[in-house]
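User: Structure tokens for both sequences below?

Assistant:
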Amino acid sequence: MRIYVGNLSFNTGEAELQQLFATMGTVESVRLIRDQATGRSRGFGFVEMTNDQEANAACRSLNEQDFEGRRLTVNEAKPQERSGGGGGYSRGGGFGGGKQKREARW
């Protein structure tokens, strides 16, 4: 199960997060999200635990708990929803299609 962990101190590293969740069960992986330009933590990350029961217990126990001076947000990670529409526009392909539609209407 993948767990979202938010409101982390910018000084928290993967090792500290690993240790925190290891008290609740077997941790498969830890990934902090970092700013691409600076490499600095963005204050959230993801923990994967091998056992769903342990992961659910970790969510219940660690949510809103103080950790390194911050009150954590801990819950099951949900897949990110992608915004719809405009798919072709990002590649510039939609522009020509619009012109053809206008010509067809005239």
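Moving on to the next sequence.
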Amino acid sequence: MVTTKIGTPFAFARWEVGPGNEAAFIETWDTFARWTAAHQPGAIMGVLLQDTENRRHFVSTGPWEKPEQLAEWRKTPEFREAFARFRELCTAIEPQDMECVAVREHSV
């Protein structure tokens, strides 16, 4: 179970995928997320969400242990290569660095 606390840095992006590129985008994102998990210290997890009405719209997010680790990840050649591929598949990409400012966990 992942526990998030106030101040946790997050990678966040909105993606608008070109028509017919949805499956290729999901595969590319998953491959890059697997590489990140295996090779980038501080990467906790990644989540990719797809809009249920506009299937070309995605949001991805993932917490990191430290903001410096997130910044270093963005400097890697693998990051640049992945984003070059994402640019081929997408009509719009909006990456952002975010910080957790509130958490409310619900018991099941």
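User: Anything stand out in the second?

Assistant: Residues 6 and 101 are 5 Å apart (CA to CA).
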